[in-house]
């Protein structure tokens, strides 16, 4: 049985900060490791070249994740601010695409209220979690204008709906509490309700559909 989550503003802020730190710790740690290798006096040229490549790739990853998290979780301007979906696409590709996962973006280049764009980016995170081995994410619009919604199709090997996510989107959990791992879908649900929407996850053939309703 699911219980409504009771979370005050300070706890929500702390959990979101923990989530962002979790996304950044891996590339930041890799940069540190690469620098330590470069500082070793007995490192050969091949090892130094590998270390430099590691630093460059990790720095790009960290930058992409920071930019994405700033838009997905940050203030992103005033309460009435609008965000260009073209900019959101750039951030989403930098955060999501890699050797295993590809993104097809079928949304127009228009300005939307910031909470709708933040919701879209958080839906993409959830959609990515449904294909843990990688695959393809396709984003399509539902309707248009300021009330545009979103439909994300996630297809990949063993695509599945994460057990706790549907309840968290509705603001509930098994025991009424959440941790830093669970805060992101909970936050996505808050964004959806702020936009007068809900987010659904359904299996459709071999794909998982994450959509606003």
Tell me the total number of β-strands: 9
* Structural class based on helices, strands and sheet pairing: alpha+beta
DSSP strand (E) fraction? Answer: 15-25%
Regarding CATH, which class?
Alpha Beta
DSSP summary: helix tally: 6
Our Rg estimate from Cα atoms comes to 19 Å
Query: What's the overall geometry?
Result: globular
N- and C-termini, Cα separation: 23 Å
Major sheet attributes: 5 strands, mixed
> The CATH topology, please?
Heat Shock Protein 90
Would you identify the regions where 5 or more consecutive residues have pLDDT less than 50? none
Instruction: Indicate the mean pLDDT.
Output: 94
User: What would you give as the CATH superfamily?
Assistant: Histidine kinase-like ATPase, C-terminal domain
As laid out across the biggest beta sheet, the strand order is: 3-5-6-9-8
CATH architecture classification: 2-Layer Sandwich
Proportion in helices = 40-55%
Number of domains: 1
Question: Could you give the order of the helices and strands?
Answer: EHHEHEEHEEHEHEE
């Amino acid at each position: 049985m699911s219980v409504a989550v009771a979370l005050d503003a300070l706890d929500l802020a702390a959990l979101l900060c923990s989530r962002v730190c979790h996304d950044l710790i891996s590339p930041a740690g890799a940069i540190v490791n690469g620098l330590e290798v470069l500082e070793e006096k007995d490192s050969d040229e091949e090892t130094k070249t590998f270390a430099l490549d590691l630093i460059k790739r990790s720095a790009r990853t960290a930058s992409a994740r920071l930019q994405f998290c700033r838009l997905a979780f940050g203030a992103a301007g005033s309460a009435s601010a609008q965000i260009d979906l073209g900019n959101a696409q750039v951030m989403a590709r930098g955060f999501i695409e890699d050797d295993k996962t590809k993104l097809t973006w079928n949304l127009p280049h228009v300005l939307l209220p910031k909470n709708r764009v933040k919701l879209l980016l958080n839906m993409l995170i959830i959609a990515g979690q449904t294909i843990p081995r990688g695959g393809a994410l396709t984003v399509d619009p539902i309707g248009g204008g300021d009330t545009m919604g979103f439909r994300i199709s996630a297809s990949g090997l063993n695509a599945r709906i994460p057990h706790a996510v549907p309840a968290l989107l509705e603001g509930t959990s098994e025991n009424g509490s959440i941790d830093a791992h669970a805060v992101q879908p909970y936050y996505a649900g808050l964004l959806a309700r702020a936009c007068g929407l809900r987010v659904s996850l359904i299996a459709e053939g071999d794909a998982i559909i994450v959509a606003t309703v």
